[in-house]
Write a structure and sequence with these properties.
single chain; 16 strands; alpha+beta; about 375 residues; about 25% helix
Length: about 375
């Protein structure tokens, strides 16, 4: 089942989409930072982004959704039975997807033809959810918000989805017909201790190929707000998104989108993307890259020209290029995206935007040199 309501372009999803799928207008934003300074600034920016998103993940709404996801996984404890949410899941897409999958599975078992409706209550004895009422027009889950509430047998959270509508598309997968649901409408409310902590309003439409033709999404998770929209006609569409904490902008984009002639694939994205304080500018020609073999690095790079800019410093940090993976035999992908500094030195982009050993090693090397 494909739950399109969860497909919000957030943080690394946008970053990856931009790196692999974006064509945007490139502008001269000044000189490059010196390589050593650029390497410091990109890591400082990475830590700044990480810290801001970690704060978002610690909001009561995100913590409760994380716990609900664990309960829906069938374990006796919430997030301890599965991998916890990461900062990449700025909107808890997996909790909502798992909830809807659970409701549809129960409905199918009871001969309900896969309807997303019913009132479910957590059963502390069986560590699962019981369907209390099925003759309702909404979907609601009542559950303990954390481990303390579960141990106390206390129901203190409720997730309710109303006005839930969807279109079902059938796709061919190696000769098998697979139906997938694309949601066109939903209103979501999360209540914790009798107080609403998150609300979401979603409206969408899709063409005959299940490509979106319009989207309106609003999410309130005080003090965070997300607004996203897509509209247009024919092959040409526009989309904007803003994620902010009160008046502080965490991420935003403004894209012009073009589908191919058959309107079943994305042909081009044009616009700007900023994950404060990092901005990507440049272009990728998808049509030219399509015939390139994954291991043909030169072919791929001929169709990519993306610069990484520090918006606060108004300086270029480096440019992005494909490089061959140093150990292709141990990696499914024979290439990876590198950031190339002004002196030609380079590093894998993933090493910088993940708090891993490679980042720690860099800081140790830098300290030894300076």
């Amino acid at each position: 089942m494909k739950v399109y309501i969860t497909k919000v372009y957030i943080f690394f999803v946008i970053l990856v989409a931009a790196v692999f799928s974006m064509t945007c207008s490139r502008k001269d934003k000044g000189d490059f930072l010196a390589p050593d300074e650029a390497k410091i600034e990109i890591r400082t920016a990475s830590r700044e982004i990480t810290a801001k998103l970690d704060e978002l993940m610690e909001t009561p709404a995100m913590q409760v959704l994380d716990y609900l996801r664990g309960l829906l996984s069938g374990g006796p404890k919430g997030s301890s039975v599965i991998k916890p949410l990461s900062r990449h899941d700025v909107i808890d897409t997996r909790s909502l997807a798992k909830l809807l999958q659970h409701a549809k599975a129960v409905s199918n078992q009871k001969g309900g033809n896969g309807k997303y409706q019913g009132l479910y209550r957590y059963n502390f004895n069986s560590s699962s959810f019981d369907l209390i009422y099925d003759s309702v027009t909404y979907l609601e889950y009542l559950f303990p918000a954390d481990e303390h509430a579960r141990e106390s047998h206390m129901i203190n959270a409720a997730l309710t989805i109303t006005n839930l509508n969807f279109n079902t598309f059938t796709f061919n997968n190696n000769g098998d017909s697979l139906p997938e649901d694309f949601f066109t409408m939903a209103d979501i409310t999360l209540v914790l201790n009798s107080q609403a902590v998150l609300s979401c309003k979603y409206r969408a439409a899709f063409n005959e190929h299940a490509m979106p033709s319009s989207i309106e999404l609003t999410i309130e998770n005080n003090p965070y707000q997300l607004r996203m929209s897509l509209s247009g006609s024919g092959q040409n569409y526009s989309s904007t998104m803003l994620l902010k904490n009160d008046n502080t902008h965490l991420m935003n984009y403004n894209f012009s989108i073009r589908y191919n002639n058959d309107k079943d694939k994305l042909s081009r994205l044009t616009g700007t993307l900023q994950i404060t304080p990092v901005r990507l500018e440049g272009n990728m020609n998808l049509a030219n890259m399509e015939p390139c073999d994954d291991s043909d690095i030169a072919c791929l790079n001929e169709s990519m020209d993306i610069t990484v800019v520090h918006s606060g410093r108004k300086k270029k940090i480096g440019r992005l290029e494909y490089r061959a993976h140093p150990e292709p035999a141990h990696n499914e992908n024979p290439r990876e995206i590198h950031i190339i500094y002004e002196d030609g030195s380079s590093e894998p982009l993933a090493d910088i935007f993940n708090p891993d050993l490679e980042t720690i090693k860099y800081w140790l090397r830098y300290s030894e040199k300076h």
